[in-house]
Amino acid sequence: MTRAVAGGYSVFPVNQIPELHEGDDLAALILDRIELEDGDIVVVAQKAISKIEGRIIRLDGIEPSDRARQIAGDEEDPRRIEAILQEAKSIVKIREPLVICETRDGFICASAGIDASNTTEAGTLILLPLDSDASAAALRETLRERSGREVAVIVTDSFGRPWRQGTVDVAIGAAGVVVLQDLKGKRDPVGHELRSTVIAVADEIASAAQLVAGKLDRIPVTIVRGLDLRGEGRAQEIPVPAERDLFR
Amino acid sequence: MTRAVAGGYSVFPVNQIPELHEGDDLAALILDRIELEDGDIVVVAQKAISKIEGRIIRLDGIEPSDRARQIAGDEEDPRRIEAILQEAKSIVKIREPLVICETRDGFICASAGIDASNTTEAGTLILLPLDSDASAAALRETLRERSGREVAVIVTDSFGRPWRQGTVDVAIGAAGVVVLQDLKGKRDPVGHELRSTVIAVADEIASAAQLVAGKLDRIPVTIVRGLDLRGEGRAQEIPVPAERDLFR
User: Fold this and answer.
1) A18 has a chain B CB within 8 A of its CB
2) Predicted local distance difference test score (pLDDT) of residue B9
C-alpha cells in the first residue's frame, strides 16, 4: 500500500487523527496509525503543532489599539488585527485590512500567520508556533526514539505569494531533511555551471503534501515516502536576509 | 509499480527520454515509455516544450543595446540581457545584472524565463514557449487521441520567489486539470467560512514533480498519478492582475 514507485515517491495521509488539543501526544497518534520507514518525511500542518503547543488566544481577551481599529475599518475584526500587530516582528505592507508582515521566525506572510479558520472553537485565533524548527526537531526526536526509524519532519503553512494567485503550502519548520538543495558548482550535461542552483525542496515537499491534506479534510499529518533528501536543514535558512531582499 | 497509495498519490519519472530537438514527437516518446491511466497528470518541463517548438536562439546573432550593456556590467553577457529585454512584456525590477520581468504570458520571474543552462548546445538561449497553455492543450489532445486516456498536462518552470530563497517549480501552462482550487463559501468544521480559500494546486503539482525531475538528471517528463483534480483550468488564471498586485 505504501510502496514508492520505481524512481518516484508516494504521498499519503495519516487518516483519522482526532481533533487536537494542548498537550496531546502527536507522535503517539501518528505511530498508532502508521508504520514509519527510514527516510520517511512526516509533514505536519502548522495548526496541529500550534494546537498541541497551546498557541491559541481568545478574541474576547484582546483590546484593539487605535491603529488596529484603523487598519480593520469596517471589513475586519479589530481584535484580530491587534493580534497580528502584536505577533509581527515587522510590517512589510498594509492595504487595509490586509497586513503583510514578518513573523517571529522571519517568514513574510499575510496576517503574521494568524488564522481564524479551522480553530478548535469559534472566537479563538491560532498563532504560529514560537519556533517551528524546534517543534519539528522535537517531534522528529520522539518519533525516532519510539519507532527506531530515521525520519524527517516538516511543519507547513499555507502562504500567498506576490504575483501569483492562490496559496501554496511551504515549510516553516524542518528537521532531518534537506531544506535548500544547493547544486552550485555542478555542471549540466553541456558543461554550463548551473546558475539558478538552489532548489527549495522543503517548500516543494510541503506543497506536495498539501495536495492530499486539503483544507477541509482536516488531515494534519501526511507522509512523503521514497525521496532521498536526508539532511540537517532548518526552515530558518529560507528567508532572504532583509539587506539582500528586492521586495521589502 | 505505479499504484497510488490509499488516499494518496504517486509521482514518478518517465525515464530515458532522449535529448529533444525541434519537431520531435513528445507524445510518442512518452507513450513508448509508459502506460498512461485516466486521471494521470503529465508534467513537462518548459525546456522540453521550448526545444521541440524551436524556441532557441543563438547568442552570436544578438546585438546588445546600450541599455543591455549597462545592465549587464562586467558580470553578465550583454547579449543575454538584450534577449531578456526583447522577450519581456514589462520590467518589474532591475538590480544589475538581475532583471525581474513579466513574460509574454503574464508571469513575473527573473530573466523573462530565459536560461542558458541545460541548453542543447553551448552558445544558445532557450526562450519560454509562446503560449504554454496552448502547448499543454496540444500535448494533452495528442496523448488522448493516441492512448484513449483522459489525462492532464502541466508545463512547469523553476521560479525564484520574493522573500524566500531557492527556486520552486510552478505551472506556466495547463490543460485538463484544476489550476486554482476555489473553496470559497465552504465552511470548516467549526463553521467559519474559509477566508484564504483559493489553493494554487497546479503550482503544487509542479513542485511535487520537480522533486523527482531534478535539474541535473535531465528528466523532462514526470507523471503524477492518483490525484482527483480533473478540470479545465489554464495557467493564465494564475497571475495577479496588475491593478490588484501589491508587489509590482
Assistant:
1) no
2) 95
Cell of B102: 513579466
Are residues A134 and A21 part of one domain? yes
At A201-239, the pLDDT tens digits run 999 999 999 999 765 567 899 999 999 899 999 999 999
Nearest to A204 among B196, B210, B229 (CB): B210
Instruction: Provide the chain B residues 60-89 that lie in CB contact (below 8 A) with chain A.
Output: none
Q: Is A142 helix (H, G, I), strand (E, B) or coil?
A: helix
Q: What is the per-residue pLDDT across A79-89, written as a single tens digit (0 to 9) for each?
A: 999 999 999 99
| A13 to chain B, closest Cα gap in Å | 6
Please tell me the total count of domains within chain B. Answer: 2
B191–A contact, CB cutoff 8 A: yes
Across the interface, of B10, B215, B239, the residue whose CB is closest to A163 is B239
Half-sphere exposure of B186 (CA within 13 A, CB side): 14
User: Residues A42, A157: one domain?
Assistant: yes
Which of chain B's residues have a Cβ under 8 Å away from the Cβ of A180? 165-166
Chain B interface test: which of A3, A42, A81, A168 (most B C-beta within 10 Å): A168
A33 touches chain B (CB under 8 A): no
- Co-location of A108 and A169 in the same domain: no
Distance in Å, alpha carbon of A225 to nearest chain B alpha carbon: 10
Using alpha carbons, list the distances in angstroms from residue A18 to A36, A50, A229: 19, 15, 29
Q: Specify the CATH number for the domain of residue B66.
A: 3.90.1660.10
Of B75, B91, B124, which marks where a domain is finished?
B124
For B11-49, the three-class secondary structure string (H helix, E strand, C coil) is: EEECCCCCCCCCCCCHHHHHHCCCCCCCCCEEEEEHHHH
Rounded to the nearest angstrom, the minimum Cα separation between A231 and chain B is 15
* B192–chain A Cβ distance below 8 A for any pair: yes
In a domain, A152, yes or no: yes
Rounded (10°) angle between helices A201-213 and B201-213: 130
Q: What is the pTM of this model?
A: 0.94
Q: pLDDT tens digits, residue range B213-225?
A: 765 567 899 999 9
How does strand A221-225 pair with strand A198-199?
unpaired
Alpha carbon A83 to its chain's center: 19
Residue of A8, A110, A246 with shortest CB distance to B11: A8
Q: Which residues contact B93 (CB under 8 A, 6 or more apart)?
A: A246, A247, B99, B100
Is B7's CB within 8 Å of A2's CB?
A: no
Residue where a domain terminates, one of B107, B124, B141: B124
Task: Note whether B89 and B152 are same-domain residues.
Answer: no
CA B105 – CA B49 distance, rounded (Å): 15
